[in-house]
Amino acid sequence: xxxxxxxxxxxxxxxxxxxxxxxxxxxxxxxxxxxxxxxxxxxxxxxxxxxxxxxxxxxxxxxxxxxxxxxxxxxxxxxxxxxxxxxxxxxxxxxxxxxxxxxxxxxxxxxxxxxxxxxxxxxxxxxxxxxxxxxxxxxxxxxxxxxxxxxxxxxxxxxxxxxxxxxxxxxxxxxxxxxxxxxxxxxxxxxxxxxxxxxxxxxxxxxxxxxxxxxxxxxxxxxxxxxxxxxxxxxxxxxxxxxxxxxxxxxx
Length: 252
Fold this sequence. Notes:
Blueprint: H1 2-25, H2 35-71, H3 82-97, H4 100-108, E1 112-114, H5 116-126, H6 129-150, H7 156-175, E2 177-179, H8 181-192, H9 195-204, H10 210-232, H11 239-242, H12 245-250
Parallel strand pairs: 1-2
């Protein structure tokens, strides 16, 4: 039992480290301890955390799809699609909201709930298509380490849910903010309709044909090029850069 708990804690640290690296690279960490900055940091943390989860779950489901295709050749079989991946993300929401530490904090009134409007307003103001692509690219760069860590688990899907729900709980407790249920649902919907959702669908379609696999490889290559550009010019960049396409063109 203690070994399993240690493994789970280690995985939580892996995920938290990946989230923090992305936030730091994109200058989305809280610049001060003010109420507004900590609230915004919590929203961005959730954005990155759910981005990583959707990508990881997509890779896991695709591995299952590939195995099922090989084992059930010429037979009817239901493959996991993106709707299933998004549905699984709701289990993280459920587990995090039912966590005893969160319930206790809510009873004490030590957690402030972030509304759907606050979440949408911040993401609309701070993120555009280029910024979404950079975030997705940085998330992709973190995946090989995370995939290797989770692949050692007996029940990968269950472990993903447990670990990511605990990561969210830790974020809420540390920041003193929690996205409302509706705000979280809107956030997942926003991620699903952005570049991350496109990547997830490409990942999930790899088993269907060689063309789909090649399309994913090219897509990953394109966004990795953008991430490398971002890292090369990091000293010149900030959120203003990310929300201003003309600045991106000037630096090329």
